[in-house]
Amino acid sequence: MVQVRAGIAYDCDVLVVGGGIVGLSTAYAITRAAPGTRVTVLEKEAGAARHQTGRNSGVIHSGIYYRPGSLKARYAVEGAAEMVKFCAEYGIAHAVTGKLIVATERAELPRLHALVQRGRENGIPVRELGAAQIGEYEPEVRGLAAIHVGTTGVCDFVGVARQLGAASGADIRYGAQVVRVDRRPERGVAVLTSRGDVVRARVLVNCAGLYCDELARLTGDEPGMRIVPFRGEYYELARPELVRGLVYPVPDPAFPFLGVHLTRGIDGGVHIGPNAVPALAREGYGWGVVRPREVAGTLGWPGSWTLARRHWRYGGGELRRSVSKKAFTKAVRRLLPAVDEGDLVPAAAGVRAQAVLRDGTLVDDFLIKEGPRAVHVLNAPSPAATASLPIGREVARRALEMLGSV
């Protein structure tokens, strides 16, 4: 049993678990706001940003999709501008490319117009386009109407995460998986790692991403949600000249997923995807990766079954595109008619850490909760990379406030 014992010196003031972009941004924000605060970051992988941060499409989101006043809306709009400045300051590869959101069916036109209104409410400049104007931006893309969002861009989020870690001055320990937590509200938190180290801290910050709910329970807090992992599968476009920038479909507001889109990255390649299918492990980057204990955990959460019953039609379409390249190509051709199956080359997949409530509700905003001597980031999927600087400041504020009261 690892314990916090009276009379034992603390190894750090704040212990951050998770070396993705949110955890490293939090460490950076703490040391910026309160110089001299001792911060340790534990990351189970051998390097930074190996999961959600390093396996997304690299898009700096504008914030147009998110409900006005929500954390996602506020932090994405702030974060996009800050991310561009951060990349410029540190010489990290980035580009502000703008993007198109394209309606390909009449039924999508009201949703497209609603996005225009939402963008304006969120303070985002939006240009409405007729069918003939789409070609000004993307000659190979077809649609009935579109909107152009000029503040969207792309960057190297892994490079950002590494820079945040270096600039934070934190003690970052890789290959250090948390296996046990002992929290004593009157004393602090002690963590045992897979390396056999014990780290004692005054406050713990949980930025464990795919495992954030498990870490919350290890700490002794019931998070009231569970992470249900969804794999996003990508292809690379063999003819990248077909796409100039970023092209998105009109999303379904019932889901937090944005649909199969086209993204010209900072390397000049074009990624297509992702779809969204249930993963059979929290790090289930392919159908062959199955972890029975994790599957059982998902199936044992009542919200998983409610979610499946509620959205089986949508899920069925996503599964079909996962197992059938032909079906995936058909989805792409709605936006880019010139593409064929031979143009799609399989690329690395990602897994989204999606929080699901007991009643089956998909948590659609960032979710941060507190317990005694602990701050838990419990839902931080896309656009968390874009919003990582303001998210980090908010988590840091809570951690420092907690630190001042103990």
How are the elements arranged and paired?
Elements: E1 12-17, H1 21-33, E2 39-43, E3 59-60, H2 71-90, E4 94-95, E5 99-103, H3 109-121, E6 126-130, H4 134-137, E7 145-149, E8 153-155, H5 157-168, E9 171-174, E10 178-184, E11 188-193, E12 198-206, H6 212-219, E13 225-232, E14 235-237, E15 246-249, E16 261-264, E17 270-273, E18 277-278, H7 292-299, H8 302-310, H9 312-323, H10 325-333, E19 344-346, E20 350-357, E21 367-371, E22 374-379, H11 388-404
Parallel strand pairs: 1-2, 1-12, 2-9, 5-15, 12-22
Antiparallel strand pairs: 3-8, 4-8, 5-7, 6-7, 10-11, 11-12, 13-18, 13-20, 14-17, 14-19, 15-16, 16-17, 21-22
